[in-house]
Each structure stands twice: as structure tokens, then as C-alpha cells.
């Protein structure tokens, strides 16, 4: 019997420490006005000392399971997929520890590395496992502690990124038209532009050629202006492909949930798709760019404030390092974020 993957639970977690533009402007060559006007970001959350990505992932995962009315016990889900750019360690993956700490038993658990597109990649993978009959329920988490890889002296990245985690539960349903079913997923990449978003050291390339790295090579780097242009085009094209596949006219989209990188990117994306700006869900002002956690945190925010109502048409799209991008659509189910 054919099954489809539908959204059944949603949860998010932000570390308590808020970092305002004023705090950053006190130590960097920038200003509150520049950050707000050029990015739309007013504040972001950064994890405290000793806090790792798995700590945030466990909190968000717990909340998504609660929202899906599932226990913290073996059998609750068949797999845990964690999208992250900032794993606890280069080896092993972080997802198995998250699964163990949530008490989910010896389930399949693995990480996905697609930077800011990671959550959409993880959703697509989870959906495929369900459709293939390999899993009935999958916990999908996007979690990041970017504050651990930011160069505190780099004004071009430090003001943009935040920490956080968001999670969903996907479960198998028999009807393709059930609200919450993931529709028309698209994924893409262009590795010829890998240099635009890069952590130079810490992997086999640097270690095999250059000996011990300069400590600064362990920091995240980004060519922001080039990324901006690519982000709008790639998300627009990917979203359009999904809409064409499922036969939804662009103007039928109620809510555009784009990767929260910059409010100007979100506005440009809405314009690219011919949608009014108000249809773009925005929480980048309060969380910054949380990379793989961005889309589920935006969903949590929009579900909690009543923007996402059952039956509304929702279009998800993300773009990130790799370069990578992706999109998916769904009809919003009757769901409360925890
Ligand atoms: N404060 C003041 N000036 C800054 C700054 C800061 N925090 N950060 C960068 N600048 C400077 C740059 O050095 C550059 O100066 P230059 O022209 O003298 O070289 C100038 O501002 C560029 O600014 P702007 O013309 O506004 O460029 P922009 O419209 O591309 O905005 C970003 C810059 C980084 C905000 C924008 O490109 C962006 O958001 N990019 C994508 C960000 C992202 O999150 N990507 C992740 C994956 S999608």
C-alpha cells in the first residue's frame, strides 16, 4: 500500500541568551542602523558556554514529539535525521546522540550537511524513507550553534547568524491529499561555487595539504553579496519547479516560508515569485540566520502567532552553502507547535 509523508508535530527551541545589534556594535566596526537596515535583523540568540548543537536539538526534538503526542520511548519514531552545519564533533554524527538522549532506542540516526538548505534536504530524505516503506515516523531536526564557528572580528558574518533548533515529526498517511503531506519536493546544488560559503579548515582538504591550520581558518566565511543574488534566483527557481509539479498557481500560495537569511532576500524572493510581501513569513528580525534551523523555527513562530491556519497553502524554500537549495509545499494541517 502506498503511503505519503505528512507533518504531525512541530517544535522549536532558542537558547535564552539574546544578543542585540547594540551589543555587537559595541565591539565591531558596524552600527545598529546598518545591521537593521541591511539585514532586517534586530536580535539573535547565541548559546552559552558549554552548550552544543545536540543540546538544542534535544530540546526541539522533545517539543516536536510532544506536539505529535509521541512519547520519549523506543518505537516513537523509526529514524532521527539531524540537519546541521555545526555538529558536536567532526566524527561521529550528532543525530545518534540526540536519539539516545531522547530515549528513542536504537533507531536509524544520521546527520545531513547541506548548510542552510539542510532542513529541506532532511525533510526530503525523511519523506522518501516513509514513501519507500522504510519508516512510519521520522523525527527531523535542524539545529545550529553558529556562534561557535563565527569569527568574532568579522562584521560581515557575526551580525547575521544566530543559534537555535527546530524540529518536525513526519508520519505515514494513506491519502495523498491529506493536509500536511509533503508535495513536489525539489533539491539542487552547484558545487562549482563552493567557495562562496566556506569553513576552510577542519576537513581533509586542508589537513592533507597544508599541515596545521591557522586558527582563523576554522571560522565560517561568506561572500555575502554574491550569495544574496544566488539565493533569490535559486530559491525562486526551485519554488517555481515545485509549484509547476503540483499544479498550484503562484498566487494561490498563502504563506511563503523562505530561508530566513535577510529580510531583503525574503522581500526579493516574494517579488521574484510575484507574491505580495505580506505573504512572506518573517522571523529573521528576532532570530537572525539560524541556517538549518531557520525553516522549522519560522514555522513554529508562524504557527504560534496564528499566521499558519489549517488548510492554508504553504511553500517552503531554502538556499545555502554548497551551493545547495530546495523547496517543498504542503497544505497546513491542524497542528500546534510545542
Ligand atoms: N557593518 C557595516 N558594514 C558592513 C557590515 C556590517 N556589519 N557587513 C558588511 N559591511 C560592508 C561590506 O564590507 C561592504 O563594504 P564595501 O562595499 O566597502 O566592500 C558593504 O557593507 C556591502 O554592503 P551592501 O552594499 O549592503 O551589500 P549587500 O546588500 O549584499 O548586504 C549582506 C550585505 C551580507 C547583508 C547581504 O549580502 C546578505 O545578507 N547576504 C546573504 C547572507 C546570508 O545569510 N547568507 C546565508 C545563506 S543564504
From TrEMBL:
Pathway: Lipid metabolism; fatty acid biosynthesis. InterPro entries: ACP_syn_III_C (IPR013747), ACP_syn_III_N (IPR013751), FabH (IPR004655), Thiolase-like (IPR016039). The keyword Glycoprotein does not apply. Residues 260-264 are annotated as: ACP-binding. GO terms for biological process: fatty acid biosynthetic process; secondary metabolite biosynthetic process. GO terms for cellular component: cytoplasm. Residues 110-191 form the Beta-ketoacyl-[acyl-carrier-protein] synthase III N-terminal domain. Its EC number is 2.3.1.180. GO terms for molecular function: 3-oxoacyl-[acyl-carrier-protein] synthase activity; beta-ketoacyl-acyl-carrier-protein synthase III activity. It catalyses: malonyl-[ACP] + acetyl-CoA + H(+) = 3-oxobutanoyl-[ACP] + CO2 + CoA. It is an enzyme of class 2 (transferase). Residues 243-332 form the Beta-ketoacyl-[acyl-carrier-protein] synthase III C-terminal domain. Keywords: Acyltransferase, Cytoplasm, Fatty acid biosynthesis, Fatty acid metabolism, Lipid biosynthesis, Lipid metabolism, Multifunctional enzyme, Transferase. The active site is at residues 116, 259, 289. Its main location: cytoplasm. CDD domains: KAS_III (cd00830). It is found in: Cytoplasm. Gene3D superfamilies: 3.40.47.10. Belongs to the thiolase-like superfamily. FabH family. PANTHER family: 3-OXOACYL-[ACYL-CARRIER-PROTEIN] SYNTHASE 3, BETA-KETOACYL-[ACYL-CARRIER-PROTEIN] SYNTHASE III. The last Arg residue of the ACP-binding site is essential for the weak association between ACP/AcpP and FabH. Catalyzes the condensation reaction of fatty acid synthesis by the addition to an acyl acceptor of two carbons from malonyl-ACP. Catalyzes the first condensation reaction which initiates fatty acid synthesis and may therefore play a role in governing the total rate of fatty acid production. Possesses both acetoacetyl-ACP synthase and acetyl transacylase activities. Its substrate specificity determines the biosynthesis of branched-chain and/or straight-chain of fatty acids. Homodimer. This is Beta-ketoacyl-[acyl-carrier-protein] synthase III. It comes from Asanoa ferruginea. The gene is fabH.
